[in-house]
Amino acid sequence: MIKHRVTVPIQSKGNVGKSLEAIARLGWMSARGLSWRAFDLDSDNRTLSKAVPGVQLIELSEEPETDLIRLFRGIPETPLTLIDPRAHLSRVLLRSLEAVRFFQYTGREPDTRVTILFYPMDDLAVMDEIAEVVERVGSQADYAIVRNRARIPRIRMFEGSDLEKELLSLGAVTLELPALLADTKDALAALEIGLQRVITPVQAVVDPEVKLDLIHRIILEDWLRLLFGRYDRAALSLLAGEEAEKIERTAPSSPDHEQERPGARRGGKVNLQNLL
Question: In a 10 Å sphere around its CB, with 0-12 CB exposed, 13-18 middle and 19+ buried, how is residue 53 labelled?
Answer without folding.
Answer: exposed
